[in-house]
Amino acid sequence: xxxxxxxxxxxxxxxxxxxxxxxxxxxxxxxxxxxxxxxxxxxxxxxxxxxxxxxxxxxxxxxxxxxxxxxxxxxxxxxxxxxxxxxxxxxxxxxxxxxxxxxxxxxxxxxxxxxxxxxxxxxxxxxxxxxxxxxxxxxxxxxxxxxxxxxxxxxxxxxxxxxxxxxxxxxxxxxxxxxxxxxxxxxxxxxxxxxxxxxxxxxxxxxxxxxxxxxxxxxxxxxxxxxxxxxxxxxxxxxxxxxxxxxxxxxxxxxxxxxxxxxxxxxxxxxxxxxxxxxxxxxxxxxxxxxxxxxxxxxxxxxxxxxxxxxxxxxxxxxxxxxxxxxxxx
Amino acid sequence: xxxxxxxxxxxxxxxxxxxxxxxxxxxxxxxxxxxxxxxxxxxxxxxxxxxxxxxxxxxxxxxxxxxxxxxxxxxxxxxxxxxxxxxxxxxxxxxxxxxxxxx
Lengths: 330, 103
Description:
The structure holds two protein chains of two kinds.
Chain A: H1 3-13, H2 15-34, H3 42-87, H4 94-111, H5 120-123, H6 125-140, H7 151-159, E1 161-162, E2 166-167, H8 179-206, H9 210-213, H10 216-238, H11 241-264, H12 271-287, H13 303-306, H14 308-311, H15 317-328
Antiparallel strand pairs in A: 1-2
Chain B: H1 2-31, E1 37-38, H2 41-67, E2 75-76, E3 87-89, E4 95-97
Parallel strand pairs in B: 1-2
Antiparallel strand pairs in B: 3-4
Helix pairs in contact in B: 1-2
């Protein structure tokens, strides 16, 4: 089957999204041109793609914030979750695990504290990614877009090349020995792998409770961490540079966002949460020298109980949720 | 003869089982546990295809993915039981004819 026809076919299905993406892309392009950049330069188009990523990811922030909020509210139901975990302590067989997951999910639903975000935020990126791919692909062959990307702009986009040497529509497979394209593509694959690697490692090594670390999913994730570079290398070879720029930027965004969240709102009971406690303690100590420092909570999920004395003292946001938590505890 | 017929009848859903198995082993772990439901969407779809066949299974799975978004309450959500269970599944998840011939 003709791959271009297939791409065009799926592209037609996604036209509302394509229209939106083109609109954002063209808006950024116009803006950058207005600021004095060369409209036909590859760099202008790359920056437009970066702008597109910023808009898309910023639009997804509310979903992310919602997830973080319900994660914080999880503190309130932590005792109940612990009760379930104790009930199934040491039972590693499939049926017990399943029953535990069921009970935990029921609890989340009942209390409205589901910390999981569903796969929508991930899923929604896929058509965007694809739309960009088909836009670039169409632009390469001189097809006009479906909206604001008219024929002239489309041709310009398709013919633009970074620093006049690496065409944005080329990939490693089509580069035909163009060393610069290959070098840029490989650099991006490496950067992409590195950013994804760091993101995963951050979550896994710092932001997971000991219970999660003992689960089979965790081990599976660890293995994936090392297979990942090869996945990227394989797919990276076939994507045009323009699409790779989108991917790379979105990966970097994820990495930074993750870092901020892990630092400021870590999963209760995780290493990152302990580190945050310690950091806050140091800060308090520095502020009122001589004031008795709260003992740093020692390991384990028991952090919620351990830090309780703190909540009776003068502390703001953390203390508030914890106070609420101990209020609901019967 | 009947056995071959059953094999061919079950072939499409077993192919789907393999695909979903690979997905769950290779792609799912990349982004970890994110599903707001139990069983997760891919697990649900796997069950649905095993019990209801490819067409109804994929349909049920699609509905489920549409239900699974950040504003959904989540919780336990199992595949509706088929009117009668005609097949058994192996440990891997393949669907085979019922060994006891209950029909």
